[in-house]
Write a structure and sequence with these properties.
Biased composition (Low complexity): 45-55
Number of helices: 12
Number of strands: 12
CATH topology of the largest domain: Rossmann fold
CATH class of the largest domain: Alpha Beta
Organism: Nocardioides furvisabuli
Strand content: 5-15%
Signal peptide: 1-35
Helix content: 25-40%
Shape: elongated
Order of helices and strands: HHEHEHEHEEHEHEHEHEHEHEEH
Distance between the termini: 13 Å
Domain Periplasmic binding protein: 65-321
InterPro entries: Peripla_BP_I, SBP_2_dom
CATH architecture of the largest domain: 3-Layer(aba) Sandwich
Length: 357
Amino acid sequence: MRLPTTTPRQQSRRFPGLVVGAVAVLALSACTGSAEDAADDEEGGSAPAAAAQGSNDEEGDTVTIGFSAPAADHGWMAAITNNVRDLAEQYPDLDLQIAEGTNDVNLQISQVETFINDGVDAIVLLPFDGAAMTPIALEAMEAGIPVINVDREFDDPNAARVTVLGDNYGMGVSAGSYICEQAAGDEDVVVAEIAGIDALPLTQDRSQGFEDALSECGLDVDARQAAEFTVESGEEVASQLLQSESQIDYLWNHDDDQGIGVLAAIENAGRDEFVMIGGAGSANAMRDIQGDNGVLKATVIYPSTQGADGVKLARLLVQQKGVADLVEVEVPRMVQLYAPVVTADNVADYLGSAFES
């Protein structure tokens, strides 16, 4: 995701062992049991788990949801909208109104105004600029239309009924913890980092998580360069880093889209003495990991399912359903998705949902 205006750090700065948690890991496709299920439970005849969990997927009243996101100018953002489109086939009761992706804030505001005027049931919004989109989101909420804020947060929490986030700080923690595990107590290893755009809070959070996790095993970042989340900048910055550092043991690159350029620079330099960890979780990165034929050995996921998760939560809200496995009957105010490390050992579990760079 990439460009939120603000990203709260809600994780602890201490990490017992190498386990990284998230604020919430929720099953988004199912709901809490019905009143009939509850009555059955009291009589000792609870419904099968599969039936209870499948109830949210059963067709209900038609729900009209407006969806707006930035332009699909890189793989991760394209996957955001494509995953939303796929839900239309899965849920016949979904009437999806998908606006054309745009990086023009004024146009995105106009798109949301149209949704409000059309009287949609809910709006799922991944803002190009969270601060700029806050007033129109507040307007939608005041009109009685629930807004689901995805990835790039609004300035005012009242502008959204639900916020769905990735975990930028957790990405850094996962990458750093993986290196600690691989280094196995060797504090003499050289760790390098190729970040995204340094001015962005998301980059700052990723780097802070990385630094905090490394400190747990006595390591720090020995060399760092910032790129711009593009292939071209990744290649340029990686070339500079490789020229200045004669020895590297571990390299974390924040973003698999820019990682295409990073890997090109590594190949051009003929370097293969280090282990590289990617970020975001692209399919091409996972295939490289699966093939085990280069320096890329792992990547940390930043889910491209966030928009689709937002739509599914919007559907639950409008149909007055809850989320399975929670006692709470209402959809939560915030869902923060996990940032797992993908390696050759578990890549098959994640490849099917990965985005193409």
